[in-house]
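User: I'm writing a tutorial on reading structure tokens. Could you give me a worked example: one chain, its sequence, then its tokens, then a sentence or two explaining what the tokens reveal?
Assistant: Sure. Here is the example chain.
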Amino acid sequence: MTPAFADAGAEALPLHIVSPEGLADLGGRLGAGAAAWLAATGFKGDLGELRLLPGPEGAVLGAVAGFGTASARRRRRFGVVKALAGLPAGAWRIEGELTPAERTEVALGWLLAGYRFGRYRKAKGPEARLVCPDGVDAERMIAMARGEFLTRDLINTPAQDMGPGELEAEFVALAGRHGAAVAVVRGDDLLEQGFPMVHAVGRASPRAPRIMEMRWGSEGPALTLVGKGVCFDTGGLNLKPSSGMNLMKKDMGGAATVMGLAQMIMELGLPVRLRVIVPAVENVVSGNALKPKDILTSRKGLTVEVNDTDAEGRLILGDALAWAAEEPSDLLVSMATLTGAARVAVGPDLAPYYCDDAGVVAALEAGAAEGCDPVWRLPFHDAYESVIEPGIADLDNAPGFGFAGSITAALFLRRFADHPRYVHFDIYGHTPTEAPARPKGGVGQGARAMLCGLPGMLGL
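And here are its predicted structure tokens:
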């Protein structure tokens, strides 16, 4: 499915977006008949409310959508797009006293709300189309939505059709669309080329583990993105219960999100030297599966005691981040569906992140507001460093501390990233219930915040 606006030259019906405070003025502009109709139908301007405006012969002359109060909009991002489902087919143009930021949010929300996952059954998208509002960068909005749609499609596809090989095919296809170069190391070659932890996690599956690299752009600051690509996670020998396994097709959500972000960057032609690294594995059970208490020697040379084979994401990211750090970059970012502790801390809607660079943090927070992509900073708390040191090896992949699981996982990754401007996202990658512009299922988190924050982070 391709997000798009209606043609700017199309005949479009007016969609009046109004808050409760502006309802009286709107009635005056629309005329006595329309005002009486809105009053008779009980329209109050609540967020997501919709009324079609009838003409004298029964034709639809336009529509009025409730923008709600500022408090309601803070509580429910993109809430106004709930009204879109009731609009008849055709082109629509926004009318109303909206700020540039509000027009951008409505336009982006409209595009994102049009997503349907149609791989396994026919999915009919909305037939109403929006003319891009004045002052909104249509190309940028479409690029954001297209990257998000790629991320959602990848996460929503079940593991039978999205194993390491299929994820590689999508990775290569993405690179091909934008003229990027790709390199892939697979199977036992991972041992020979220095990715022992990626190999150890994925070796039990008949679908060979691999690590993939994409390079694009020849000028500008260097940006490296690393995404966790566990295409399915049974937990390994520390097997998950069925309730914990049901959503594990989404455990490659970090890979899907960095791929979506990479698409946005390349489609918009940002002046960066982009490098994307994705380790892709299945964490399953067989006779040669990774065992609890095994000790692995990582690419960086650090030894890791495996105290839980279900804490495998940080192992494959360790090798990937070490590889990333071997080449200088201006910013290093990792994204992963890494810990349940992050969900306990902030729930499914927020993308918690870790970063110690004040300039990057400020730019990311501003980007989150601009991109309507909420994030929340958690600390690299140095006092917990000792928790990830088991004594028998340099690091412990699953310390029995019982607290701060997302923080200790982030500290583990920081040992491999070894970068002064490192950002780590511990995302969920899934919307558990239908929400405005976020259908139930796979979702990107942090990508739009990063895209909008990159100018401030990299001086673009």
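What the tokens reveal: Residues 14 and 62 are 5 Å apart (CA to CA). The two ends are 31 Å apart (CA to CA).
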